[in-house]
Each structure stands twice: as structure tokens, then as C-alpha cells.
Amino acid sequence: MPNLKNTPHFQALIMLFIAMISMQSSGSLAKILFNQFPILTVSVMRLLLGSIILALIFKIWRVDFKAINWKSVASYGIALAGMNALFYMSIARLPLGIAVSFEFIGPLSVALFHARQKFDFIWVGLAILGLILLFPFDQAAQNLDPIGIAFALGAGACWAMYIISGQKPTGISGNHTVCLGMFIGMLCLMPIAIFTGMPLAVFEPSNLIYFITLAILASALPFSLEMIALRSLTPLVFGTLTSLEPAIAALSGFVFLGEQLLWTQWLALSVIIVASIGCTMTTNRAKKYLSDE
């Protein structure tokens, strides 16, 4: 009888779960850092240190810079900058799980736009129902910040742009595109962060260690693990499992920040996850059907 724990598929699943936990835990760490540093400063430091770490991991110096499609890389980096900054501004005003749920509408919309199956209207309806359930209509004390919601939806729109621009040919590998995109995104946000008051204290060793940890949790570790996991997982399995991120974010907010959600909001997260899983499955089925024709 084969040992399931030693199979590449099982190991890839574990790596993917660790990557998702790492990514969503980084949101909790970012919220803690907001108490001491401006939001844009945290965003810039995450992108700066993340790009440096990834540059070392993926050996950016081996890239043929003359072959790079800088227009595609720049659009990717701008989308990444907007996604990162707006998401951080949203979680400063909203519970982590709620912000991720609103943000998740971005990639879900992209998937539904390209899907053409008869079940698509069901997933659209579930996504809309999930968004409605996120609002605590019967709990005035739990009202959601409308500006935070706007930031989260803006982050979702940038996430959609990130997916679309990431599919354009850049002349280099996906790993190097992410690395250069993060650096360009940092360059976009840095002037704004400096203008709004970026303290030099961020470069003090006692503070820098927190930003390095944030960069590892939010970029280096999840990107590296996802790259390995994708070698053994189908797009269907990968997309289905990553649909669990709103729930993981909510759990991270509960464990590390003490954020509590209403039962209707937990139900909303579940509905959005079901919509995302369903969309992933029907989209994958449509692609398989077209490839078989």
C-alpha cells in the first residue's frame, strides 16, 4: 500500500496550504505594523524587500534584459502596486477576512468573464449573495467602513488587472516577472510614501527585521512554495484550494488580531468560497472541452 504522505501530490498540497497561511498571516503582521508606521511605508517596504529576496532566490542577474518587454512588465508592476497599497489601506479599516472577501471579487470576476457555462449564473448569484451577507444589517455596532470597502474593491480591481497583465508575454520567466514587477511597484509607491512621511526608522535593525519577516511571509515563501506545488497540481486543484483564502484570512485575523465576525459573515465567506470553487471547476471544464475539439 503506497504511503500517501510521501507522494508528490500530497506534498504539493501541504506546500500550497503553507503558502496560503503564510500569505494571509502576513496581513495580520502588516496590521500590527500599521500601529507604528504609515500604511504606504509598510507597503513600500514589503515590495522593496520582497523584490530583493526574490531577486536573490531566482538569480535576477541571469536575465537577458534586452529581451524584456518592459511595457508588459510595467503594467504588471503598476497593478501589483495598486493591489498591495489598496489592500493594506482596506485592512486598516476592515477585519482581514472581510477585506479579502471583497478583494476576491476581482479574480472571481475575471474567471466568470471568461467562463461560458450554463452554471455561471449560479456562481455570479452566489458571489452577489456573499457580498450582501458580508454587511451586518442587524448589528449597528459592527458596521463596515465604506471607505475600507472601497479600498478592498479597488484592490480587487487591481488584482484583476494583475491577472490580465500577468498573462501577457514579458520575454522572461514568470518568477523574474514577479521580481521585476514588485520592484517597479515599489518605485511607483516610494515617492508617495516619502511625500506623506516615510520615517527613516524603518531601516533601523530592530524595525527592519519585522519588514524582512513581512516580505518573506507575503512574497518569498508563498511564491516559492506555489511554484513548486504547481509542478504536481492541476490548475483545477490549485484554483479550488486557493479559493479558501478568505476563510484562512478570517482565521488569521481571529488568531493574531482577535477579530470576530458575525455568523452571517462566516456564511458570506462560505458562499463566496463556493462560488469561487464552482467557477474554477466550470472554467476548467470549458477549457478542457475546447482543447478536445
From TrEMBL:
GO terms for cellular component: plasma membrane. InterPro entries: EamA_dom, EmrE-like. The chain crosses the membrane at residues 40-61, 73-91, 97-114, 121-141, 147-165, 177-202, 208-229, 236-257, 263-283. The keyword Transmembrane applies. Keywords: Membrane, Transmembrane, Transmembrane helix. Residues 147-277 form the EamA domain. GO terms for molecular function: threonine efflux transmembrane transporter activity. The keyword Transport does not apply. It comes from the Bacteria. It holds the Pfam family EamA. PANTHER family: ACYL-MALONYL CONDENSING ENZYME-RELATED, THREONINE_HOMOSERINE EXPORTER RHTA. This is Threonine/homoserine exporter RhtA. It comes from Acinetobacter stercoris. The gene is rhtA_1.
